[in-house]
Please model this.
Amino acid sequence: MRIVEKIVYLDNAATTPVAPEVLEVVTKALSGACGNPSSHYSVGYEAKEFVDTGRAQVAKAINCQPGEIFFTGCGSEADNWAIKGTALKLAKKGKKHLITSQFEHHAVLHSMKALEREGFEVTYLPITSDGFVRPEDVEAAIRPDTALVTVMMANNEIGTIQPIKEIAAVCKKHGVWCHTDAVQAVGAIPIDVQDLGVDMLSMSGHKFNAPKGIGALYIRRGILPYNLIDGGGQEGRRRAGTENVAGIAGIGKALEMATGHLEEKMAHQRELRDYTINRILKNIPEARLNGGLEHRLPGNANISFPGLEGETILLDLDMHGICASTGSACNSDSLDPSHVLLSIGLPEEIGHGSMRFTFGPQNTMEEAEYLCQTLEEVIPRRRAMSCMWLQSENTVRDFNLKK
Ligand code: PLP
Model:
């Protein structure tokens, strides 16, 4: 039960609210354009107009051609398509090896597991204690039969931004296709696919104020992964299914808005993030930041509070009207320690007491202050009741991160 009326939403990496301007376009598309975009009469053309506009807006935001944007049902579908579509296509040429990292989203990791069950081989690259994949590790893992390298642009739990441009250059040098899961990065930091040099890039509308249930895969011209969904000729015959007209109108408008004044929005989020991190590390004993501060998403603060379970903190924060996360939302119903935190060398017991706070452009400094005040009250009170905290002075607290 909440003890306050207000809601302070600090879980923008899980999802974001639909922006009013986006809602307006979505409503217009839902209420007006009743035709099928494939139909050859005026209401069909009207619907197609929404789809064409959305595609052009998304393409412009990441600097590619509209014909290189393929709409999907979500970011997970875009990841599955890039990975499984490439694997199936290049297996025909004897390439049955894929490279990814240990701390990818489950949309990537579970796609890899599915391919392993079908006889593909996968290399899972290690992560540094600061939360980065090293391009030299990518290069060392490439083999003559490597079909694809996929490394995420920004980690969804600890927010570290990966050296994708360098990784894509390594892939190009060895003639290997390169995909990046940029679901957390698109709309949050500048993305230019020409500059990055990737062959495929996944995104998801609900991470940048579009409705849930619409994603997209950028596929560079000339790259042809197998289709995942066969049927009609939509999306240039590469992804069948009548288009989600309203979702596409929404993702286009949302991305256009997200990328406008991006530097200012990033500076604002960075201010809230750094205030929160500094104050927590200063005022709450033994709190530690997960992932390096440099090359980090502007809105991400992921902090461990040794001696406590994240679920306890989550409930306390909820009572104070604060929405946060103990890890990735898709995994928050599991009590397994986060694979991301384990990958950077955090011991299980510290990983269990970790919280992710993610700020969006709409959050305010008062909200960051309120979060810090609440944590300063809640954490010592819970620790005073925690056997784990009281009994483990020398074990839990005295841990070393891997080098
Ligand atoms: N990849 C990353 C890095 C994510 O953070 C998420 C969602 O949290 C996804 C993929 C899946 O996106 P969607 O929820 O649109 O399927």
In short: The first helix runs from residue 20 to 31. Residues 265 and 298 are 9 Å apart (CA to CA).
